[in-house]
Amino acid sequence: MNIAAAVNESFANNSNYLIRSAMFVYALAFLAHLAEWVFGGRSKVAVQSAALTAEAQAEQDAAEAARRKAAQQVTVKTAGGSTVTLERPTVVTRASASDRGIEDGPGAAGGSEKGDLYGRIAVSFTVLAWLLHATGVAFRAASVQRAPWGNMYEFSTTFGAVAVGSYLLLLALKKDVRWIGLFLTTSVLLDLGLATSVLYTNSEQLVPALHSYWLWIHVSCAIISGAIFYLAAVGTLLFLFRDHYEVAVTAGRAQDGRWGDIMRRLPSAATLDKFAYRMNALVFPLWTFTIIAGAIWAQAAWGRYWGWDPKETWAFITWVAYACYLHARATAGWKGRKAAYLALIAFACFLFNYYGVNIFVSGKHSYAGV
Amino acid sequence: MSITEKSEREDLGAAGAQLSTAPADTLAETPALGVLGWLRWMWRQLTSMRVALILLFLLSLAAIPGSLVPQHSDQLKVDAFKAKHPTVSPFYEKIGLFHVYSSPWFAAIYILLFISLAGCIVPRTWQFVGQLRSRPPHAPRNLTRLPAYSTWRTDASPEDVTEAARKALRGRRFRTSVTGTSVAGEKGYLREFGNLLFHVSLFGLLIAFALTSLEKAEGGKLVVEGDGFVNNLTQYDDFSGGTLYGADDLQPFGFDLDSFDQKYATSGPEKGTALEFKANIHYYSGTDGKPVKGEISVNHPLSIGGEKVYLISHGYAPVVTVRDAKGNVLKSIVPFLPQDTALTSVGVIKVPDALGKDGKPDQLGFRGIFTPTFALDSVRGPHSSFPTLQYPALVLNAFHGDLGLDSGAQQNVYQLDTAHMKQFTDSKGQLVSKAMKPGDTMTLPNGAGSLTFDGVKTWASFTISHQSGNEAALVSGVGAILGLAGSLFIQRRRIWVRAVRAEDGVTVVEMGGLGRSESARIADEIGDVALQLLPDAPVRPEGEPPAEAGTPADAEATADAETTAVNDDEGARA
């Protein structure tokens, strides 16, 4: 392997500037999201005209349904050569039993045009920040000519870039996930703030134990898994709040306060739960692969594939906790809130494996330290 | 929630059954009387999903202490912990906190978990085999009760529609079975297969683990440049064998350490960071095989005759010549142990055969540090500032008296037991201590002798390990991932198409779908199949759009308005 690569300091400095600029733009995105939530809030006037809005909403829904129907027109050529437009048979779906029949909220903007504008601005800022962020990570990689995840600073910055990247990818796939934006920008700011202040390490070459192509495979998988687990955890947390809110609403308790106004705009509990599950289930096999790739590397580097090193142990604990969650979600009596708590515990294990094990526990992964 | 779901499934009868072989949970069941009844009850509890969940949770909980308390695989740390926490240590020892992963309670959890798992997957496997051999279940009487449903009227004959539907479903790789004018199709068996494969792979992993721990043997050896190693028990610094693999099973081979390369960054902000460690060796297999040139580096172990040799660490061994009061000479190469990345090393030199001035035994001992690049500051004292030999120095204190070697107790070669020794003092009563460059000599007071620092050699330490079960573990691991992917990403679903001639002579096509989970994709698939059927069963163009008004399906749908929703956008995109 190419080891003696010198550190290119100007690249490293550029990377630092880029990461700091990204933080600035993320902060702007964060403020824009805040504005989105504020303007989307139900003002006094809005409360009074709530009924009107509901009517307008109903009209809008009808228009939407018509549009959808139009989209389902199918053009079929008949044998005679003339073209007739046949309607594609409508598929009627029955909501599953776990559904309360409560529809998704309108999103942070809450139907307010101004709020929506700020939401769009926030997404644009996020895209710009992410571009700066990703370029910063790339510069860091170029400065050391290796994978940009050799220490906690690099791991944290790359982790943030992957988390935001996944969110933007979901947006690009036209998934309705803008509700996550405020929470994501907040935590990315925290993540980067922690990385640049506490965890910062100069651009450096790695100890020989890390000179292996498994560094690319094992750690990148860990980063991707973590980023998706994180998105799922946000979904799970919001599910718990929204579920609480829905229970109250179904029981007929008024939820007119500020809290209720925020909850009202979130997707329904069923949607949030489904989102969290899909994310977790999507990435669980990858997390399994991360552990196995780590074991293969450990076999080559340390002479055993499993040695109950603290990092390995916590990866295992995280894995079992997520397995618990996936099983719970398929078990009667454990669905919903209980499973959600398990998912949060599992993510807490992941976080501890990252921060806790690196900082408080010494083990064979300690060169990944601060 | 679960009750509603259950009753829903019951509505569908056989059609909804066995879409998965997941066990139905029998929660509130009281045991029947008698020993057999109790046993049966316990077995059912153990194999229930709830208990499996609890066991899984316990397993992750039980693994935690082992990551926080030092484990017996690192005995030095355990000893340090015991010395630091004398009050809790005996208790920790008693409940096995120093060897969590081989403790009975940890074993109890995973053994119970695996029994529970076996009790679950063996019946599931048979059920699955049964499902594979039988045909997809018939269409339920009332297709409108399915999660996704579609209907229209056509002029094509029911038989033609049935045949077209069968072809369409076959084309989509559904398993189909035709009864009269209805077709049942099922797809996604790989989900169940993946699920079973995953769980069986876990057993594979467990067996691989057991094999590995039974047959694993590992030993360590420190070799100084120019020296060699022969694979038999007497040569090891430490050796731990497995139950099935002991000292007698060691393969005959050996190697000589010719030289050790280490490269570090010499400038820039990363100065001192290691770039490369490489042991250049000659190795031979058998007792007198021909030596072959080779090298061992981190991440690149050497395989000889089924054993693997790993490079673990390296350091320096000062070469010293000690003279006692009577002029007896001992030349010795003493490995010092590195303490930091700049290889500040500590070590001791023991001279058990030294004689005092009076000719009686007066053992000598030296303790101190070796620095490859000597530096001195007020905080750290003498230390090394760079890991290569740029300005080597040896700083020693000297002792004489009884080394304590004859007491019979085993002694650490890197530690000096000064209980029965006195430190040399000079004429002014100052403790004797000297920092030496290569070639320097430390003269002991009162003609007690001297020590000359002749030079430095590099050493490397190796782990020689024998393992089995690696391949089994790898295969199981890969199986587990494939199984997981199958069981999480593949949807098992059924689609039924029924064509019946209505009273007015028009054929009514009904189509319903059922998936294992509440995925919106099933509705989408129904739509696609319907679209595919349209050329063979065109919608009757009499201005009577189906599912809009008048059909029984719609009546049902509106009656059930709360739980009915038109297929949403997400489904259309998925």
Automatic annotation (TrEMBL), chain A:
It comes from the Bacteria. The keyword Transmembrane applies. The keyword Membrane applies. Its main location: membrane. The chain crosses the membrane at residues 17-39, 121-143, 155-173, 180-201, 213-241, 282-302, 314-332, 339-357. GO terms for biological process: cytochrome complex assembly. It is a multi-pass membrane protein. One of its GO terms (cellular component) is plasma membrane. Keywords: Cytochrome c-type biogenesis, Membrane, Transmembrane, Transmembrane helix. It holds the Pfam family Cytochrom_C_asm. It is found in: Membrane. One of its GO terms (molecular function) is heme binding. This is Cytochrome c-type biogenesis protein CcsA/ResC. InterPro entries: Cyt_c_assembly, Cyt_c_biogenesis_CcsA, Cyt_c_biogenesis_CcsA/CcmC. It comes from Actinacidiphila bryophytorum. Residues 149-362 form the Cytochrome c assembly protein domain.
Automatic annotation (TrEMBL), chain B:
It is found in: Membrane. GO terms for biological process: cytochrome complex assembly. Residues 546-565 have a biased composition (Low complexity). The keyword Isomerase does not apply. Keywords: Cytochrome c-type biogenesis, Membrane, Transmembrane, Transmembrane helix. This is Ccs1/ResB-related cytochrome C-type biogenesis protein. The lineage of its organism: Bacteria, Bacillati, Actinomycetota, Actinomycetes, Kitasatosporales. The keyword Ribonucleoprotein does not apply. GO terms for cellular component: membrane. Residues 49-526 form the ResB-like domain. The chain crosses the membrane at residues 51-69, 105-126, 196-214.
